[in-house]
Amino acid sequence: MLDEKGTVRISKYLSMLLRHQPEAAGLVLDEGGWVEVDELIAACAARGRRFSRADLDHVVANNNKKRFAYSPDGRRIRASQGHSVAVELGLAAAPPPEVLYHGTASATLPLILRDGLRPMSRQDVHLSADVETAVRVGSRHGRPVVLVVEAAALAAAGHEFRVSANGVWLTDAVPPERLRQLHP
């Protein structure tokens, strides 16, 4: 059984491979971001990153952000969202709640308030349904700031929202006029 350190180590490596650099392990993701589990395990082992299917099951089940998902038959795996490589997750449009939240570091606030939220190196802007998650996300790069996104108003104006398997809301962009700081 993996300890917490081992779980985090494998999770970070999988995030890199399944979201950003599959070629680093000689992997090719299909159009939906999927790769065969056996192929992933073998490719990682060939690069000195050995783990079993049971270890992988543990990482998928215990990742605090639920970053990974198995296909219904359990033979393929993919990242739930956050890709910088082109994939089509096949997520249907969904009506968002009235508001969603975005956590960021305070240093980025002036730029975001001027230009809005953009996907940057990812395919989509990531939003959360709760403040706590937004605070945790914003804390990764400094003092966190939480922005309130007027999601229902954006949807009414034609913006499409999708929700990933792990509950992260995705959209193409959020204009600055639909943002406000939660705690000024």
Automatic annotation (TrEMBL):
Belongs to the KptA/TPT1 family. HAMAP family: KptA. Pfam families: PTS_2-RNA (PF01885). It comes from Actinacidiphila polyblastidii. The keyword tRNA-binding does not apply. InterPro entries: Ptrans_KptA/Tpt1, RNA_2'-PTrans_C, RNA_2'-PTrans_KptA, RNA_2'-PTrans_N. Removes the 2'-phosphate from RNA via an intermediate in which the phosphate is ADP-ribosylated by NAD followed by a presumed transesterification to release the RNA and generate ADP-ribose 1''-2''-cyclic phosphate (APPR>P). May function as an ADP-ribosylase. Keywords: NAD, Transferase. The lineage of its organism: Bacteria, Bacillati, Actinomycetota, Actinomycetes, Kitasatosporales. This is Probable RNA 2'-phosphotransferase. GO terms for molecular function: transferase activity. Its EC number is 2.7.1.-.
